[in-house]
Amino acid sequence: MRRAIVLGLLAASVLGGLGGIYVYAVPRAAAAAPAPSAPAPGIYANGIVESDQSNGENVNLYPEVSGVIAGMLVIEGQSVSEGTPLVQIDDTVQRALAEQLKSQAEAAQALLAELRAQPRKENLEVASAQADVAHASLKTAQDMLDKQQSSFRLEPESVSKDALDNAINAKKVAEANLAMVTRQLELTKAGAWVFDIRNQQKQAEALGKAYAASSALLAKYAVKAPMDGVVMSIGATVGSYVSPQGAYDTYTQGFVPVVVMSTAKGTLAVRCYIDEILISRIPPPDKLQAQMQVRGNATKIPLEFVRVQPYVSPKIQLSNERQEKVDLRVLPLIFRFHPPPGMQLFPGELVDVQVGSK
Length: 358
Description:
The chain is an alpha+beta fold. Helix content is about 40%, strand content about 25%. α2 packs antiparallel against α5 and α3 packs antiparallel against α4.
C-alpha cells in the first residue's frame, strides 16, 4: 500500500514537470504594440529664440574705445530706456586731455576778443600824449632856430656857425620825431591788423574743434543703450579690459559683446535654419505656416512668418562653436510669436520648428 502511494506521487511529479515544459516551451502570441504616429508633413529645422527686430538678431553692444571698465551701471534683466548709460570705461586720461584743449580754446578766444577790441583806450591816450610832446619839442626847436637866425642876421659874429647848424639839426630831429609819433598814433587808432585777427580766428576755431572732438571721444567712454529694451547679457565686469572687439570670455576663449540687449516688445522672434536640400520645398510666403516646440515641453506654439534672410550660409553650431567646420549650408527663416501665458522663454533658447503649407 505504501509503495503504491509513493509510485503515485512520483507519477504526479513527472506529469507536472512535463506540463510545465509544455507551457513554457510553446511561444505565446506577442501583445500588439501601438503603431508610432507618423510625423506631420512639412519641413523640420532647428531654431533659436532671439529678440524681435526688423533687421538683425539681438543688439550686440561693443565699445568704440579701449580701456578698463570703471563701473557697471546696469544688471542683467533690467529694462532701460534709450540713452541710459550701461557701462563706464575709465576716462581719466581722455578727460584731462579734453579739459586741456578746452583751456587752450578759451585762451585763443580771449586773445581774439582782445584783438577785435583794439585800440585800447589807455594805449590811445599814451600815443596822443606822445604826439603832443613831439609837437612841443618841434616848437621849441623851431623857436631856438629862429632866435639863432635872427641874431646871425643882425650880427653875424654873435652866433657861431656850429651853433646855427645844431639849431637846424635839432629842428629836423624834432620834425622827424613828430612824424614818427603821428604815424604811431594813427596805427594805434587803426587797431589790430586784419590779417592778425583772421589768423587768430582760425587758431581759435581749430582749438575749438579739437576740444569738440575730444569731448565727443570722451562721451564714447560710456556705453549707452541705443534703444528702449532689456539687458539680456553682460560679458564683462568692473576691472575687465574691453576694446572695440568686445570682452574676452574665458569659457569660449573668444571675444563676446560687452552688453547684449533685446527689444522691449512683448513678442519674440525665432530664426530657424533650413537645410539647402530642403529649400525647394519651402512653401510660398502667403501659404507658409509654422509652429515650434520648446525642448522639454510638449506645447506647440504657432509662429508668424516675418521674412527670409536671402543668403544661404554655411551651417554653424547653434551653441556658438565657430571652430567646427561643416559642409552643409542653410537658409535662415525668421518668425515672430507671442510667448504663451505662464511659459518662460528667453533669447538664445533652442527650439524645434516645423514649417508647412496652409
